[in-house]
Design goal:
Order of helices and strands: HEHEH
Shape: flat
Distance between the termini: 22 Å
Radius of gyration: 13 Å
Strand content: 15-25%
Largest sheet: 2 strands, parallel
Number of helices: 3
Structural class: alpha+beta
């Protein structure tokens, strides 16, 4: 939840495509939930670098 008066920023995150890479499933879930709450349009997550790199080759991300 954003502080009061900052809700107008949410629409700016909608077009972002973010890739989360972490070997901890709970941390990936936490980061995914946080990014989605911020309004990020596309969140992908991977537990290992090999699968993340394969995914990035198919579709680049705005933020990793």
């Amino acid at each position: 939840m954003l502080p009061p008066g900052m809700d107008h920023l949410l629409h700016r995150f909608a077009p972002l495509d973010v890739l989360v890479l972490d070997d901890s499933r709970p941390m990936r879930g936490l980061l995914r939930a946080l990014l989605q709450d911020l309004g990020v349009g596309h969140v992908r997550d991977h537990a290992d670098a090999a699968s993340a790199m394969a995914d990035l080759r198919r579709r680049p991300a705005d933020i990793v």
